[in-house]
C-alpha cells in the first residue's frame, strides 16, 4: 500500500519499465497476444478471496446502458428501453442438457500477467484488462498498450511466477486496480471506467470508480470521478463494474470490513449500485427511505464480485460468503440480501430477507467474475451463468431454469437446488469444471464475436498446488472439443 506521494511515484516508475510489443494471434478476433519484460505470448495464437476466510435490471427490475453526457449520442443511450438491448430475448429457455457432457479446453494467449482482475470489451473487439498492481492494458489485435495507470491507486503487489510463497495477503490485500468497464458508445467518448483502491491524505483507504480517457497523454489522471467513498479494507472490496442492458453502470461494493453497515442503505458498504456514467443515481432506482443513498439498487451484501443479466433482463450476482456459504442471487430492486444477519440456508425462511438461488453451505467456491454466455463458440455453456472460482480453482457453471421448465440432469451436478429456503423463481443446477487446470480463476468474459476469455489470479499469494507456475498469470481462450 502506498501512503504518500513518494511511494506512489516509486511504484509508477516501476510499472513504467514494462514495454509492450505487438504480436499477431491467429484466429483471435479483435485480440492480440502480447509480450513484455514479464508478460509473454505463447505459441498459440474472504474469503478464498475468498469466501473461505482462510481457508435489474430485473426485467430489468429497473434493468439497464451508459453515458457521461459527453455528446448527444452518448447521453441518448442512458436508460434505453430493455427491448433495444442486443441480447434481449424474453422467450429464452435454459438448456436441458448437462454441461459436463462436453470437454472444455484452453488456448493460452498471454503469460506472466501480474494479478489481472477484470476484462471488458469495446464494441470493436478491443480488450481492456486490469492488473491489480495499477495498470489497465488494451489489446487491439495488433498492439498492446497501457492506457491507464491511476496515479493514486495502491500497488497491490504480487509474488513472482513459480513462487512457492503463500503470504495470504500481498501488500495491497484484496484491493488495487480492480474492475473495468467500457463506455457504451466507445470510442465516442473514448472513456473507460476503473474501480480502484486508494489512500487519502488522512491515511484511510477507500475505493472509487473513475473515468479515464484512453487517448489521453496523461494516463494517470482520471477525467471524472464517478463514485467515491466506497469502504475499503484488506478484504471485501467488491470491485466489479459493468454496464447493464439499459446502459446504466452497475458497481458491486463489498462491506470493506464494516459488516454492520451492509444493512444501512445510507452507506455504500455491502451494496450493489446503479448509476449513470457521470455517477448520478439511475432515475428509477428503488426508494429505500429517508437517509438512503439513491444510487443503491440492493443491499445486505458481503463481497459481491460477479454480476450478469439473463436474456429477459433479470440481474443475477455471485458473492463470497463467510466460511463457505457463497451465494448466487437474483437481484430485485430494493431487496435486502441479509448480510450480516442471515447467511445459513436454513435461516432464510421467515426471515424477511431475499433468499439465494444457491448457497454452497460449508463448502467454499469463492465465486468472482461471471458472465451469462450467449455465444456459439462453446455450445455446452450457452444460456448458462459461468463464474470463476478462486479458492476452489475451477469454473462454476449454473443453469437457471424457470418454474415448470425441464431441468438438466442432476446426477453429475454439484447441486440442484429445490429446497424451500431458496429463491423459487429459478431452480439452480450447478456444475463445476476445469478443477485445478488453471488455478485461481478470477474472471470470465465474452467477446463481441462470442468467444470466452478467462484470466487467473495465481500471483496474489493464495494459489494452491502447483500454482503459480512459471507462466502465471495467464489470459486464455476457452474451447470445446
List keywords for this structure.
481 residues, mainly beta, five-stranded antiparallel beta sheet, 28 strands, disordered N terminus
Summarize the structure.
The protein is mostly beta strands and 481 residues long.
Question: What is this structure's SSE topology?
Answer:
Elements: H1 5-16, E1 21-23, E2 33-35, E3 40-41, H2 72-76, E4 104-111, E5 116-121, E6 127-131, E7 135-139, E8 144-148, E9 177-182, E10 191-199, E11 205-213, E12 224-231, E13 241-243, E14 249-253, E15 271-275, E16 296-299, E17 303-309, E18 315-320, E19 327-330, E20 358-359, E21 367-372, E22 385-389, E23 394-402, E24 415-417, E25 426-433, E26 441-446, E27 452-456, E28 475-480
Antiparallel strand pairs: 1-2, 3-4, 4-28, 5-6, 6-7, 7-8, 9-10, 10-11, 11-12, 13-14, 14-15, 15-16, 17-18, 18-19, 19-20, 21-22, 22-23, 23-25, 24-25, 26-27, 27-28
CATH class: Mainly Beta
What value does the Rg take, in angstroms?
A: 20 Å
Order of helices and strands: HEEEHEEEEEEEEEEEEEEEEEEEEEEEEE
Strand order of the biggest β-sheet: 3-4-28-27-26
Fourth CATH level, the homologous superfamily: TolB, C-terminal domain
Q: How many domains?
A: 1
CATH topology group: Neuraminidase
Query: Segments where pLDDT lies below 50 for 5+ residues?
Result: 1-38, 51-61, 65-72
Written account of the structure:
There is one protein chain. The protein is mainly beta and 481 residues long. It has one domain (5-480): TolB, C-terminal domain (Neuraminidase, 6 Propeller). It has two helices and 28 strands. A five-stranded antiparallel beta sheet has the order 3-4-28-27-26, with no helix packed on it. It has a five-stranded antiparallel beta sheet with strand order 21-22-23-25-24, with no helix packed on it. Strand 17 (303-309) and strand 18 (315-320) form a beta hairpin. The radius of gyration is 20 Å and the shape is globular. The protein starts with a helix and ends with a strand. Residues 1-38, 51-61 and 65-72 have low confidence and may be disordered.
Amino acid at each position: 500500500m502506498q501512503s504518500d506521494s513518494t511511494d506512489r511515484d516509486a511504484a509508477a516508475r516501476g510499472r513504467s519499465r514494462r514495454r509492450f510489443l505487438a504480436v499477431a494471434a491467429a484466429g483471435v478476433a479483435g485480440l492480440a497476444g502480447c509480450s513484455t519484460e514479464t508478460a509473454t505470448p505463447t505459441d498459440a495464437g474472504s474469503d478464498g478471496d475468498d469466501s473461505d476466510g482462510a481457508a435489474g435490471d430485473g426485467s430489468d427490475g429497473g434493468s439497464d446502458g451508459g453515458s457521461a453526457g459527453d455528446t448527444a449520442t452518448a447521453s441518448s443511450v442512458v436508460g434505453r428501453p430493455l427491448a433495444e438491448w442486443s441480447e434481449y430475448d424474453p422467450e429464452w429457455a435454459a438448456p436441458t442438457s448437462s454441461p459436463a457432457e462436453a470437454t472444455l479446453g484452453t488456448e493460452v494467449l498471454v503469460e506472466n500477467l501480474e494479478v489481472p482482475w477484470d476484462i471488458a470489451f469495446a464494441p470493436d473487439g478491443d480488450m481492456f484488462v486490469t492488473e491489480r498492481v495499477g495498470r489497465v492494458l488494451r489489446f487491439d489485435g495488433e498492439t498492446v498498450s497501457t492506457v491507464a495507470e491511476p496515479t493514486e491507486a495502491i500497488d497491490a503487489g504480487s509474488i513472482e511466477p513459480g513462487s512457492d510463497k503463500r503470504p495470504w495477503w500481498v501488500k495491497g490485500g484484496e484491493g488495487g486496480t480492480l474492475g473495468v468497464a467500457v463506455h457504451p458508445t466507445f470510442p465516442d467518448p473514448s472513456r473507460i471506467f476503473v474501480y480502484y483502491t486508494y489512500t487519502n491524505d488522512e491515511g484511510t483507504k477507500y475505493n472509487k470508480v473513475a473515468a479515464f480517457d484512453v487517448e489521453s497523454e496523461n494516463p494517470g489522471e482520471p477525467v471524472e470521478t464517478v463514485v467515491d467513498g466506497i469502504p475499503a479494507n484488506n478484504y471485501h472490496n467488491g470491485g466489479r463494474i459493468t454496464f447493464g442492458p439499459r446502459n446504466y453502470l452497475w458497481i458491486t461494493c463489498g462491506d470493506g470490513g464494516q459488516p454492520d453497515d451492509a444493512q444501512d442503505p445510507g452507506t455504500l458498504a455491502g451494496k450493489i449500485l446503479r448509476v449513470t456514467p457521470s455517477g448520478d443515481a439511475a432515475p428509477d432506482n428503488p426508494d429505500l427511505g429517508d437517509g438512503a443513498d439513491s444510487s443503491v439498487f440492493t443491499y445486505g451484501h458481503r463481497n459481491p464480485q460477479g454480476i450478469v443479466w439473463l436474456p429477459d433482463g433479470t440481474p443475477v450476482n455471485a458473492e463470497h460468503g463467510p466460511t463457505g456459504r457463497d451465494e448466487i442471487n437474483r437481484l430485485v430492486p430494493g431487496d435486502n440480501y441479509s448480510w450480516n444477519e442471515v447467511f445459513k440456508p436454513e435461516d432464510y425462511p421467515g426471515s424477511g430477507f431475499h433468499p439465494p438461488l444457491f448457497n454452497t453451505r460449508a463448502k467454499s467456491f469463492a465465486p468472482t467474475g461471471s458472465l451469462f454466455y450467449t455465444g456459439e463458440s462453446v455450445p455446452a455453456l450457452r444460456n448458462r451463468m459461468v463464474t470463476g472460482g478462486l479458492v476452489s480453482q475451477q469454473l462454476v457453471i449454473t443453469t437457471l431454469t424457470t418454474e415448470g421448465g425441464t431441468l438438466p440432469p442432476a446426477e453429475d451436478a454439484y447441486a440442484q437446488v429445490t429446497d424451500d429456503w431458496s429463491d423459487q423463481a429459478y431452480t439452480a443446477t450447478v456444475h463445476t469444471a476445469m478443477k485445478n487446470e488453471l488455478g485461481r480463476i478470477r474472471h470470465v468474459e465474452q467477446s463481441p464475436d462470442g468467444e470466452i476469455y478467462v484470466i487467473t489470479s495465481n500471483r496474489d499469494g493464495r494459489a494452491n498446488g502447483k500454482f503459480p507456475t512459471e507462466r502465471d498469470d495467464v489470459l486464455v481462450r476457452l474451447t470445446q472439443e
